[in-house]
Write a structure and sequence with these properties.
heterodimer; A: 4 strands; 6% strand; B: alpha/beta; 11 helices; 14 strands
Chain lengths: 374, 323
């Protein structure tokens, strides 16, 4: 009776030795993700605040100054400079020093006093769409609010319709809360795929793979013996990232950490299989590196990590269903931010498990045809 | 499972095609237990393909192969279980120590811990690896790497070991030592299947086969090959001519009637001469051509002579057949 996992324990023994010897690679593959976390956790804030604003106040009286105070107090705008003519107003925006220009015409106060409609010109630099959108929203809201107060007078009468938006799960709209759970998916994929692909391609380069094929080691024993140590590393890294997220970046975890660990298994399985697939194609470590990068781009851009999947053009939206990170980001955000449970997430886990199995089968086939038979 | 095989390897009419290309074309040979079987041939002639077929990596397109009494087509795993294999680049894990490399291969072959410990000790003794036991194999010199690789291949006490160009790129002393070791082991009944490019190594084998573009051109002991009629036709003999300017001498010697063929070997010329042209006349003829002959002596053909003759004949036949 042929044991299909023959050689597993031998390969496992050897791989753990490799990992211990090549401490530098291990160290960097674990430390660099943490550095990336710091960069993204502290350095990037997707909330738009303190937009540099240039003001041309041609009116200059009390009403106009009140309006400017309200804009300043919104925290969205920071008045960078006052100018005295249209040309300077334009220049400040064109040169990129300011994103928003506000011109209050000379008759602003007069029109208000005469109960006429007073116009305020708001110039917005559209080169960054999220800044522009925020500027439009806030200025429109302030204008509306100002108008209503004047129409209603200073009575205590409430607004007829009072909208009370309440943001669930991330009430302060903190960027780390949003970014870091997604980053977990990207980093985990990154490290595990790279490490597996490298460990196999290295054996190709050295010729030791050729040697192994002439021993009783069976392909499944070889692959499993190689995968398991890296599964361990992937798990350790997940624990590291989640701890850093919780204790350094103070991202509250609303769901069950054990469930998160459990659901990360199919995801790590996918990225390991991807690593094997890459190694069946790559002939050198440099080649493997290029191919691995190719897998990272879609997981950054089409997984909902940075751009919401729902707003993508149809083609990319469909594409995002084939990106494993899409499912795992739903899992991490679900558990960490929304306190989701097994009942909400089992479909994502199943999808990942299916993908991993499919990839492993393709990889094993390719391995058989292109590597062993070559 | 292997019983008590009468022969180590028996290959009958091995054929392997890749699409329309026939890489191995009806190759048959038999290797007896305890032989050092030298498998020779130029690069791309099908040596590696034959090894892959015998070790069960490549399915046979046709023919039969039995290795240690096991049918390769029926039980390739069984074959791999019982043979040792050492590839040309001594496939060692350079970031593992000598002991760790050996332990790994011991586990690959499923040796129980007690036996592994015992074999590890024996291999280290036999190969003289003692002082280097805890050294990373990256820090070993070529010769020691090769001894370690051989150790890894024989840890599970295989009766048959395949050595694919075992001496490529190592120094002459290490080469000599390896061959001494192979002789010692073959004395203990281990069979070796060796591929090599070095003719002096071919001469040391007890049995040699020569493959050329998928076809086996020669198969026998080195002495038997030297006496093949294609190599040593009736009515001819072989001489070594030593002359100061060999290239000049060769050019002129080839024009002398009675000299069938001539090739340079280092500082001398090996020539195949018709019997009617005796040594005296040969010397005279050469001197008439203006060649200062230092020495002429009769010579048995080397294996290299054998392979050169066989290859030339085959090429000639192919050209004649191809039109």
């Amino acid at each position: 009776m042929v044991n299909p996992f023959r050689g597993f324990s031998a390969i496992f023994y050897k791989e753990t030795l490799h990992v211990r010897r090549d401490f530098a690679t291990l160290f960097f593959s674990l430390i660099i993700p943490i550095l990336q976390m710091f960069l993204l956790g502290y350095g990037i804030d997707t909330n738009i605040r303190q937009i540099n604003t240039v003001v041309y106040n041609a009116d200059g009286r009390q009403e106009s100054r009140e309006l400017l105070d309200r804009l300043k107090n919104s925290d969205t705008f920071r008045i960078y400079r006052f100018v005295n003519n249209d040309r300077d107003l334009n220049d400040a925006i064109i040169s990129g020093k300011c994103r928003v220009g506000i011109k209050i015409p000379v008759d602003y106060s007069d029109k208000l006093l005469h109960q006429m409609s007073a116009q305020v010109l708001v110039l917005i630099d559209g080169s960054d769409s999220s800044v522009a959108g925020q500027a439009i929203n806030v200025t429109t809201a302030i204008g509306l609010d100002e108008s209503l107060r004047r129409v209603l007078g200073n009575t205590d009468q409430a607004f007829a319709v009072d909208m009370r938006p309440k943001v669930l799960f991330n009430p302060d709209s903190r960027s780390p809360n949003f970014l870091l759970p997604g980053l977990t998916a990207v980093l985990l994929l990154n490290v595990t795929t790279f490490l597996t692909a490298f460990s196999i391609v290295r054996e190709k380069e050295r010729g030791t793979l050729e040697q192994l094929f002439v021993t009783p080691v069976r392909p499944m024993g070889l692959l499993l013996g190689k995968l398991l140590p890296y599964l361990g590393i992937g798990f350790f890294e997940l624990a590291m990232i989640v701890s850093a997220m919780r204790f350094l970046f103070r991202v509250p975890i609303h769901g069950n950490v054990v469930l998160l660990a459990f659901l990360s298994l199919p995801y790590i399985f996918v990225s390991l299989s991807l690593g094997i697939l890459i190694s069946s194609k790559a002939t050198s470590q440099a080649h493997a590196m290029q191919l691995a990068f190719l897998t990272i781009l879609p997981s950054v851009f089409f997984s909902g990590y940075i751009f919401p999947r729902e707003t993508m053009p149809r083609f990319f939206y469909v594409l995002s269903y084939f990106v494993p990170a899409s499912y795992f980001i739903n899992i991490t955000r679900g558990i960490i931010l929304r306190g989701a449970g097994w009942g909400h997430l089992w479909i994502d886990a199943l999808a990942l498990f299916g993908m991993g199995t499919l990839l492993l089968i393709i990889a094993a086939r390719r391995f058989h045809d292109k590597v062993i038979m070559a | 499972m292997p019983g008590n095989p009468q022969v180590a390897i028996s290959a009958e009419h091995l054929v392997r095609r890749f699409g329309s290309f026939t890489a191995v074309d009806g190759v048959s040979f038999t290797v007896e237990p305890g032989e050092i079987f030298g498998f020779l041939g130029p690069n791309g002639s099908g040596k590696t393909t034959v090894i892959k077929m015998l070790t069960g990596l490549l399915p046979l397109t046709g023919g039969e192969a039995n290795v240690l009494g096991i049918d390769v087509r029926k039980d390739p795993e069984g074959v791999r279980e019982n043979i040792g294999y050492m590839s040309q680049n001594f496939s060692l894990y350079t970031d593992l120590t000598v002991t760790e490399n050996l332990t790994f291969y011991g586990r690959v072959y499923g040796l129980p811990p007690e036996r592994l410990r015992k074999r590890l000790h024996e291999i280290v003794e036999l190969n003289g690896l003692g002082p280097y036991k805890d050294r990373l194999s990256a820090q070993l010199s070529g010769g020691w790497k090769q001894r370690l690789a051989l150790g890894c291949a024989m840890l599970h006490e295989p009766k048959l070991i395949f050595l694919d160009e075992p001496t490529a790129g190592i120094d002459p002393v290490a080469r000599r030592q390896l061959w001494d070791l192979l002789f010692e082991l073959s004395g203990q009944g281990i069979t070796f299947f060796v591929t090599t490019h070095y003719m002096d190594e071919a001469e040391r084998c007890s049995h040699v086969a020569y493959i050329y573009f998928g076809k086996l051109l020669a198969d026998g002991t080195p002495d038997a090959l030297r006496e093949l009629p294609e190599v040593q036709p009736q009515g001819t003999y072989r001489v070594e001519i030593t002359a100061p300017q060999v290239t000049f001498a060769l050019r002129h010697a080839r024009m002398i009637p009675g000299i069938r063929s001539a090739t340079i070997f280092g500082q001398s010329i090996h020539a195949l001469i018709d019997d009617h042209l005796d040594l005296e006349h040969l010397r005279k003829q050469l001197e008439q051509e203006g060649i200062a002959v230092a020495e002429i002596r009769p010579l048995a053909p080397s294996l290299e002579d054998v392979f050169v003759e066989l290859t030339t004949k085959r090429q000639g036949a192919q050209e004649a057949a191809g039109g």
